[in-house]
Amino acid sequence: MNLTEHLPILVVIIPLMTAPLCVLLDHPRLAWFAALASSWVSFAAAISLVMQVSAQGPISYWLGGWEPPWGIEYRIDVLASYVLLIVTAMAALVLIFAKESVQKEIPEQRIAYFYAAFMLAFAGLAGIVATGDAFNVFVFLEISSLATYALISMGKDRRALNASFTYLVMGTIGATFILIGIGSLYMMTGTLNMLDLAERLPEVADTRTVRAGFAFLTVGIGLKLALFPLHLWLPNAYAYAPSMVSAFLAATATKVAIYLLLRAILVIFGIDFSLGLMPLDNLLLVLGLIGMLSASLVAVYQRDIKRLFAYSSVAQIGYMVLGVGLANATGITSTILHLFNHALMKGALFIALGAVAYRIGSTTLKDFSGLGRQMPFTMAGIVAGGLSLIGIPPSVGFISKWYLVLATLEQNLWPVALLVLFGSFLAVIYVWKLVEAAYFGEPDDTRTIREAPLSMLAPLWILVIANFYFGIHTDLTVGLATQATSALTGGGG
Predict the structure, then answer these.
(1) Cα 276 to chain centroid, rounded
(2) What angle do CA 31, 36, 40 make, to 5 degrees?
(3) What percent of the chain shows pLDDT beyond 70?
(4) Scanning 14, 229, 369, 372, which has its CA 20 to 30 A from the CA of 418?
């Protein structure tokens, strides 16, 4: 049996099967090791899929040998392989960091269950990306969401329960909207296969049912990706979740939701319907801009650094949505690029914050005073991630913003380009607050603070180096993003 043929399903099955294994092992170290090994195997499978898709084109995997659209199909194209790479890479790195962090933040008797929930969340996100079946998307969305609610609720702060409950309520509303949207499309076409839907929808596109289905799907996905003004669950969820959960969610969850948005509006409905016949482009443009500026302004006034970067995530989602709203190839390329680039910068920042929380038990601004001298490698990682967030060359953040500004100028929307630059200026303000406290504040002499353990610094610096490596060598990221855009907009793979 050739294992490479089964990689599309293995990427999902391996973490899914590891979840019950963690519970059966019921030992903190063994559960951690099983999760770590599983995530690295999935990461290796994702790398292999990227190489296969680049060489041979999209991979279609039929479950049980049933031919689509009768059977369920897993379909890995350029965009799917690219997003799978982000999800698996972040899971693999965050699990290295988790070894020390989870022991400190989660009671020992719950650690095995914690890793089981984490692997379910990971498997759900991978499944959303890999499947070519619209109903399967909903199933995997629920698997990842339910596991995520449990993970957030395990945070040390009592407010984690409240954050988890808010996310549960809003996530359930979002999932219900998505299910109603899928049901409407199934009612009109009799199929759930995404490519089959794309072929059949144009015949019935002018019906109220399809338009209602489009609206339900868009709002449901908007809730999941924390699009302004549907973002209210995100800041508390990121701020009060355990450190490794914040790092993983910030780097993957909203990226998978953006992927889902691109799949729905560009593959299933088609660019002419979504961004032409329906006025979604104008709506995304306006909401993206408001989200980008308002969340950046709110971030400036935050005293808790995890909340600050959580609001910054809402602003970065604004940039990605703005790229789609511009409705041109360069704009969509900038969105796909920023999926990867934002995962690198936010992963690095939240891992660094987790390392600070591990040493001082807090992430409030006043506790960062003098940390630049006491935790030099951790704080240097935060500064590097902050520079990327602002978009300073040669970081990945600069590449994303360069393409976004080019896209606005192509549409002759120079005021929007200026607003994008203003958003970067706001990022300078909130990143500087942190730098000022860490490097110019006086350290508290009553406490002796050591540098974070190597198991935390290693994944942090892998991501920091990646932030600048992919800012200089853009062949892989820009190449894949351009290929994915032409496939999405040109009707290919």
Answers:
(1) 27
(2) 150
(3) 98
(4) 229
Find residue 342's DSSP bridge partners: none
What's the mean pLDDT in 424-453? 78
Which residues have C-beta within 8 Å of that of residue 201, sequence separation ≥ 6? 185, 188, 189, 210, 268, 269, 270, 273
Residue 367 CB partners (closer than 8 Å, separation 6+)? 360
Residue 123, domain member (yes or no): no
Residue 229, both tokens: 């003004």
Contacts of 362 (CB under 8 A, 6+ apart): 356
The C-alpha torsion from 479 through 481 and 483 to 487, rounded to 10°, is 180
- Cis peptide bond prior to 58, omega within 30° of 0: no
- Cα separation, 176 vs 166, in Å, equals 16
Sign of the dihedral through C-alpha 342, 385, 105, 156: negative
Q: What is the pLDDT of residues 302-341, one digit of tens each?
A: 888 888 888 888 888 888 888 888 878 888 888 888 888 8
The residue type of 185 is L
Task: Give the E-state strand segments of 38-101 in sequence order.
Answer: 59-62, 73-76
Range 378-391 burial, b when 16+ CB lie within 10 A, else e: bbbbbbbbbbbbbb
CB 431 within 8 A of CB 354: no
Residue 184's nearest CA partner among 205, 208, 213, 207 is: 213
Range(s) of the domain holding residue 427 = 280-493
Q: Cβ–Cβ contacts within 10 Å for residue 476, how many?
A: 15
- Contact status, residue 185 vs residue 220, Cβ threshold 8 Å: no
Q: Is position 22 within any domain? A: no
In single-letter form, the type of residue at position 97 comes to F
Q: Decide: residue 1, CB within 10 A, 0-12 exposed, 13-18 middle, 19+ buried.
A: exposed
| Distance separating alpha carbons of residues 205 and 233, to the nearest angstrom | 33
The reply to whether 219 falls in a domain is no
User: Is 76 inside a domain boundary?
Assistant: no
Q: How many CA atoms, within 13 angstroms, populate the side-chain half-sphere of residue 170?
A: 23
Residues shown for the chain: 493
| 3-class secondary structure, 142 | helix
Pairing of strands 73-76, 59-62: antiparallel
Cα-based torsion angle of the residue sequence 95, 98, 102, 105 in order, rounded to the nearest 10 degrees: -130
Closest Cα partner for 304 from 155, 425, 171?
Answer: 155
- Write out pLDDT tens, residues 161-211: 888 888 898 888 999 999 999 998 888 888 888 888 888 878 887 788 888
* Alpha helices (H) in 326-448, listed in sequence order: 329-360, 371-374, 376-390, 396-410, 414-440
On the 0-12 / 13-18 / 19+ scale of CB atoms within 10 A, 93 is buried
